[in-house]
Write a structure and sequence with these properties.
Blueprint lengths: L2 H8 L3 E5 L20 E2 L2 E2 H11 L4 E6 L3 H10 L7 E6 L6 H11 L7 E5 L2 E3 L4 H13 L3 E9 L12 E7 L5 E7 L19 E4 L2 E9 L2 H8 L6 H11 L8 E6 L6 E3 L3 H12 L21 E4 L3 E4 L5 E2 L4 E2 L3 E3 L4 E2 L4 E3 L2 E2 L4 E2 L4 E3 L2 E2 L4 E2 L4 E3 L2 E2 L4 E2 L4 E2 L4 E2 L4 E2 L4 E2 L4 E3 L23 E2 L11 H4 L6 E2 L3 E3 L5 E2 L2 H4 L6 H5 L11 H12 L2 E3 L5 E3 L36 H10 L7 H14 L4 H25 L2 H14 L1 H6 L8 H11 L5 H5 L2 H11 L5 H12 L4 H9 L1 H27 L1
Parallel strand pairs: 1-4, 1-6, 4-5, 8-13, 16-19, 17-20, 18-21, 19-22, 20-23, 21-24, 22-25, 23-26, 24-27, 25-28, 26-29, 27-30, 28-31, 29-32, 30-33, 31-34
Antiparallel strand pairs: 2-3, 6-12, 7-14, 8-12, 9-10, 9-11, 15-16, 34-36, 35-37, 37-38, 39-40
């Protein structure tokens, strides 16, 4: 064994804690403080994770901070955790995603223990990690490619701990627990593609959809090195793990394994306010013992102590908490220190923070009230979160799913709409950080920063004349990079298809999961949500299957959007990349070299020959457009002549890339995309697509069999809006009729010759 490996084994166990979740799902609560310092059952989330790491034998912890780094550092330095663990803050405000953070850690060379624990700062767990560490060490010693172990827990499909946005599908080798597939299926994806190798009788692969990713990983330092090598990796799960387990070629694999939690073990991440509330309830009901409200993390016992009583009610006993005699405290409640609750109130399934005052006849149900909150008489709060320093004035109603940011004031008699989020932060670009969930997946970046700035002005129609705050809207980015704040889209019952389900509503307490699932099933069957949140059945404009494209009226790059394919690097526009490879080809070079290069790329991305042919046709189009210029493109005859000349030159490549007749369909799909490119409008209107089909047929580039296959797909309605419109064009119909007549005449001539013989 190399000396450095022996040294690594002797190094004390280290851990990396990502204090930034790189999400926006905890806004507006996280505008003023980092998510990891937000209270969960009156304890900062960071304290849960550090307490667990210390109890698991970790001796040195690196807390990586980006946003609000100074607050985290100050909190760490002022805390009094057990001396068994050394905590160091690593600050780098230039990082925008977890990949950047791991590359920075690798650059600094701080992590030296093999293995080390990596986790998010918003995880709550009671796992005994010793067995998982032992298994990981054994596997890594046998094969250095075994570099990562992911902790997972089997949970019901309807568990509130699961994210509504993603449906995790994992392929596990039942013999070794090696992960062979790691797919985060999106809402409208009713199916998941499984590699054919899984169906081999000897594969022993079990595909599971009931696993919860706990956000805890056991890693060798090689994981950090891999991120330094793959400089474009931003997301740990959706890029690194997904692509690593999809690699099938021996020698190139980063092998990743799963460790399943036992029946009494608990681990979950606070993804958003919905999971925040679910985890809070689990702790109150003691599912994560010994992590329970009456067993506080180290240091808290100096100030607070909770007494556990029947019906899962916890009262702080060191402070001066006063509750009126006729106020009802029902199941599943926590009452913080120095709380003062007047008579006639009712509190159920709620957490009350420290130093709070409630007036008479206050009703709080299923809610979380943080510290220093003042609530007037006759106020109702239902399944909401009220952050530090807020005031809710007399007679106000806080409807389900609301989040009231720090120091906001809700005026007298105001009724907030369900799922409203109120903030009084003037500059709302400070928050949890980057993108979606341990990730910076560009395709998932639907919820963008709401950048304010300047002097703060309250919205009196929302919070009242005596209130303070404004309604916070996520900013939705459209395809062209524009943005809009659409209150209806993000409100209850508004919006269309998936946008509604990944919106504020689905990340809030009180979200109707059953209703959402019903709408989800209807959407998957081809319906669209109407304005009332119902479903109107009808086909959309999206293309289906076979690697083809969905019609779009946007610019040409939209034609490169395609469905997820197993074994393909996420975010890669395969046809576009193939087109670019063809554009780099020099006509003085042999097409044999280009064919080899295209074939290699095809295998690396699990593409098809149809993709290759489609990319080649689009490369031809780009060469023609560049050669003719804007003036030349205005002449249908000039475009057709140039296309014919260029297509004939590429005949050799088309022959090499069409081992089957059906592969030629990619040439036709490429021609469809060609005439829909910007600048080709006049050519399309002049029957250009029909002329291309005729040319391809006359030059023997395209067989009649391939045209028939393409025709059959379009008859079935496959191909998207533009594809179906081109197929319905009268000139195309005339060409297909002529082709059929020619085929019939040819068959008749052959029959006559046979009779004469």
């Amino acid at each position: 064994m190399p000396a450095d490996e022996v040294d690594r084994e002797d190094i004390k166990l280290q851990a990396v804690l990502l204090a930034d979740s790189f999400t926006k799902t905890f806004r507006p609560a996280s505008f003023d403080k980092p998510k990891v310092l937000c209270p969960l059952n009156n304890v900062a989330m960071l304290d849960y994770t550090i307490e667990w790491l210390a109890s698991s034998g970790v001796e040195e912890l690196f807390v990586f901070c980006v946003q609000h780094a100074d607050q985290v550092k100050a909190y760490v330095e002022s805390s009094s955790w057990t001396t068994a663990i050394k905590v160091t803050c690593v600050k780098d405000t230039t990082c925008t995603n977890p990949g950047d953070a791991l590359r920075e850690l690798d650059k600094r060379g701080l992590v030296r223990s093999d293995p080390f624990i990596m986790m998010s700062g918003d995880v709550v767990t009671n796992v005994d990690v010793r067995e998982a560490l032992k298994e990981h060490k054994k596997r890594h010693k046998a094969d250095s490619a075994n570099m990562m172990t992911v902790l997972m827990k089997e949970v019901p499909h309807n568990s509130p701990l699961r994210s509504v946005a993603d449906d995790l599908i994992v392929g596990i080798n039942s013999n070794s627990n090696q992960i062979c597939m790691f797919e985060s299926r999106k809402f409208k994806d009713s199916n998941v593609q499984i590699p054919s190798s899984f169906f081999d009788a000897q594969s022993n692969i079990c595909v599971k959809s009931d696993l919860l990713d706990c956000g805890i990983d056991i890693c060798s330092p090689d994981v950090l090195a891999r991120f330094s090598d793959e400089f474009d990796y931003k997301d740990i799960r959706k890029q690194f793990i997904r692509n690593s387990v999809a690699e099938e070629e021996e020698g190139l694999q980063n092998k990743i394994f799963a460790h399943f939690l036992g029946s009494t073990e608990y681990a979950a991440r606070v993804h958003d306010f919905r999971t925040y509330s679910a985890i809070s309830k689990d702790l109150i009901r003691r599912w994560c013992y010994p992590v329970v409200p009456d067993n506080l993390p180290s240091g808290y016992e100096r100030k607070f102590a909770y007494e556990y009583s029947r019906h899962f009610v916890y009262r702080e006993v060191k402070g001066n908490t006063v509750v009126a005699r006729n106020t009802q405290i029902k199941n599943g409640c926590i009452l913080g220190a120095n709380a003062n609750i007047e008579e006639g109130g009712k509190i159920a399934s709620s957490v009350i923070g420290n130093d709070c005052y409630f007036g008479k006849n206050v009703v709080i149900e299923g809610s979380h009230i943080w510290s220093n909150v003042k609530i007037g008489s006759n106020v109702k709060v239902d399944q909401s979160i009220i952050c530090d320093g807020c005031e809710i004035k007399e007679g106000a109603v806080i409807s389900k799913g609301c989040v009231i940011g720090s120091n906001c004031v809700i005026g007298k008699g105001i009724v907030l709409k369900p799922f409203s989020r109120i903030t009084c932060s003037a500059n709302t670009d400070e928050g949890d950080d980057g993108d979606d969930d341990w990730s910076d997946s560009e395709e998932d970046e639907d919820v963008q920063e709401d950048v304010g700035g300047g002097e703060f002005e309250s919205e009196v129609d929302v919070v009242g004349e005596d209130g303070k705050g404004k309604l916070w809207h996520p900013v939705v980015t459209d395809e062209d990079g524009g943005s809009s704040e659409d209150e209806e889209e993000w409100g209850e019952g508004g919006g269309e298809d998936w946008d509604e389900f990944v919106s504020v509503e689905s990340q809030s307490i009180g979200f109707d999961v059953k209703g959402a699932n019903a709408r989800k099933i209807k959407l998957q069957s081809g319906g669209d949500l109407d304005d009332s949140g119902g479903v109107s059945v009808g086909g959309g404009d999206d293309g289906e299957g076979e690697g083809e494209w969905g019609g779009s009226e946007n610019d040409g790059d939209m034609f490169f959007e395609e469905a997820h394919v197993v074994g393909r690097q996420k975010g890669v526009d395969v046809v576009k990349e193939l087109r670019d490879l063809c554009l780099e080809h020099d006509h003085n070079s042999s097409f044999q070299n280009l064919a080899i290069e295209l074939n290699s790329f095809k295998f690396s991305q699990n593409a098809t020959y149809e993709d290759v042919n489609c990319g080649a046709v689009l490369a031809v189009a780009e060469r023609v457009k560049e050669g003719l210029g804007d003036e030349g493109l205005s002449s249908v005859a000039k475009v057709l002549s140039a296309l014919k000349k260029e297509l004939v030159l590429w005949t050799e490549l088309f022959e090499k890339c069409t081992p089957r007749k059906a592969d030629e369909c990619g040439i036709i799909v490429g021609a469809e995309r060609l005439v829909c490119l910007p600048g080709m409008e006049k050519f399309r209107a002049g029957g250009g697509f029909r002329f291309i089909l005729q040319t391809l047929h006359d030059e023997d580039i395209l067989s009649e069999e391939a045209i028939e296959v393409w025709k059959g797909r379009r008859v079935k309605g496959e191909g998207g809006k533009d594809g179906l419109e081109l197929f319905a064009d009268q000139s195309v119909k005339d060409f297909l009729e002529w082709l059929e007549e020619e085929s019939d005449e040819s068959d008749g001539s052959e029959d006559e010759e046979e009779e004469e013989d």
